[in-house]
Amino acid sequence: MIIQSAANVQNCRKDEANMNTQKLTVLYERLSRDDGDDSLSNSIKNQQNLLQDYAERHGLTPYYHEFDDGYSGTGWDRPAWQRIMSEVRAGRVKNIVVKNLDRIGRDYLRVGLLLEEFSASNVRLIAVSDGIDTSKGDDDFTPFRAIFAEWFARDCSRKVKAVLHAKGRSGRPLTNKVPYGFIKDPNDKNKWLVDNESANVVRRIFSLTIDGNGPYEIARILHNDKVERPSYYLAKNRIVNCQSALDSTPYAWRGTTVMGIISKPEYAGHTVNFRSSSSNFKSRKRKQHTPDEWLIFENTHEAIVAQETWNLAQKLRETVRRTDTTGEANPLTGLLWCADCGSKMYNKRNSCETMRIDKLTGREYKRQPSDTYHCSGNLLSRQKFSKKCTEHHINTSAARSVILDILQRTSMYARKYEADFAAKLRESSTLKEGETLKTHTKQISKNERRIAELDKLFSSLYEDKVKSVISEERFAQMSANFEHEQAELREQNIILQTEIDTFKSDNAKADKFIALVRKYTRFEELTNAVINEFVDKIIVHEAEWSEHGENGERKGTRAQNIDVYLKYIGKFDVPDMRSDDEIEAERIAEEKLQRNRQQKREYQCRRTAKLRAEKEAQDNTNPEESETLTA
Q1: Which residues share a beta bridge with 193?
Q2: 231-245, 381-395, 475-489, 590-604 — which is least confidently predicted?
Q3: Helix (H) and strand (E) counts for the chain?
Q4: How does residue 409 score in pLDDT terms, banded at 50, 70 and 90?
Q5: 131-190 pLDDT, tens per residue?
Q6: Cβ atoms within 10 Å of 149's Cβ, excluding its own
Q7: Do residues 64 and 27 make contact, with C-beta atoms less than 8 angstroms apart?
């Protein structure tokens, strides 16, 4: 920040008209947070008084002050210093006066280059406390002073980095900028509190994401609803000091801003440290670390969204959903997988009605819009002329119908029979209750004791080898046996512990699914939010036909199985709760439906055969006309 008082301007610039033609003296002051205990003696006011007194006593007039308050000497993008260098290169500076050499900077190479530039430009440099005056010739100690200044900066950087590392590893947030949605606790700057107004916007962003909207679509919705963007909101409420943010459009949300909010684990109540680092104390560029290099401390402050909601949002962001002529992406994209080759299912949609001509009748008819999924492995293998898989195609409407039916039946069963529901989940586990759990625990303890015993045997064996009690070959054979046994025991313990953890988590899975079911009163409609919150994945099998023709053509009824895996519980087989009368009624209705379908197929076959015969008869009656049309 550059501040010049009216008194300084009036006293230091005595003749403004003369200053425009006469070279000036610049009194430069700088103060950094890195100065530590010396910050009082190095204060801007003390430096100004010292330099002004020196300039008056030595006749270095006219002069004026330039200072950088709060800028480190390791950086060179200081506003006041940039203005001074512009004046030097314009030839309007005669003298530069500083308290000591490290006020110019703490990079001895850059300082050395500056001294050469000043010499070439006939600019006199004076460092009052260091006794440096370039008009009196070179000072042999000047390079060493520059090196000591850099060493001081390096030492300060090392100490600050050590303090920050200790703070970051203790779980306290390193960032000074609190994420949008939080504010700092007035009584503890390391503690974050939820800001209700902005937190509601964050919750809405996550809700819109779960509804299937992409970041740029969410940005458009927030803009249309006149929701203030984060920088404008924070500046308006004086949470941050950024006046420039108030000068632009308050509702100009961007997709990148939305993506940044969705990706932050802080909204789930966690603290994330060491997102970035600088290579050295001279560099102002920061290297961004990958998420696996972050240090995350869980549940350090109040969460704005639940952990499950945050996890679901991350999963949805991983799947690319492209819009087509309908203007809306298919919410099932990324959930359907081929049962045979394991490839994702590719969505093909034709949203417009098209006019087609029947080859037999010559009449035009409307082809209805289509929305189907196909095995991407099959589509790609067609392009490479190497058949990898079959089509596995399924209509989106059929898939949605099956999903809705499974959700309705599973949620109804989970609500009515919570105890039985949890018991069935336990039955599907690889571990049973009671004695089995005790057996696994005892076996793990036994294995741990054997592993410790093998460590002692190995140490004793090594001593025997050193004392030449056993040969090298014998030692190698026995140590290999010990290591092999230890590896098997550790692997067995991992399997047993995994089964124990699976058993213990079954009740939690049931509770989580029931809590999710209670969020919805009814499942009459399969919305995007319901799909994203309940469905984990869908496995699509190839369809089977009830009949096949002489040439292998498919006939009859087409039947296709799909496996729907729900969140927390996977593929759950709901017990049949229908009465005998209901089962019989549904059987009769299904037989009637099959008879109607069969009658329609037979009618269509007879009609097609009749139209084909009529066309062949017409072609035989007018062969010349047929040949002309063919030509």
Answers
A1: 183
A2: 381-395
A3: 19, 21
A4: confident
A5: 888 888 766 566 666 666 666 666 666 766 777 777 778 888 888 888 999 998 888 888
A6: 23
A7: yes
DSSP lists the bridge partners of residue 168 as: none
Q: Name the nearest CA neighbour of 532 among 544, 542, 540, 520.
A: 520
At 508, list the tokens: 């939690």
**How would you class 46 by CB atoms within 10 Å of its CB: exposed for 0-12, middle for 13-18, buried for 19 or more?**
middle
Query: How many CA atoms lie within 13 Å of 161's alpha carbon, on the beta-carbon side?
Result: 12
pLDDT per position as a tens digit, 270-321? 998 888 877 665 666 777 888 888 888 888 899 999 988 898 888 888 776 6
Exposed (0-12), middle (13-18) or buried (19+): which is 202, by Cβ within 10 Å?
Answer: buried
Rounded to whole angstroms, how far apart are CA atoms 64 and 14? 10
- Integer-rounded Cα radius of gyration of the chain: 39
Q: How far apart are CA 201 and CA 207, in angstroms?
A: 10
Within 10 angstroms of residue 67's Cβ, the number of other Cβ atoms is 24
CA atoms of 214 and 321, how far apart (whole Å):
8
What is the topology classification, in CATH, of domain 6-164? Rossmann fold (3.40.50)
The whole-angstrom separation of Cα 324 and Cα 330 is 9
**Considering the domain 182-318, what is its CATH architecture?**
Alpha-Beta Complex (3.90)
Alpha carbons 227 and 242: distance in angstroms, whole number: 19
Tokens matching residue 566 = 């729900």
In sequence order, the β-bridge partners of residue 385 are: none
Residue with structure tokens 């069963």? 413
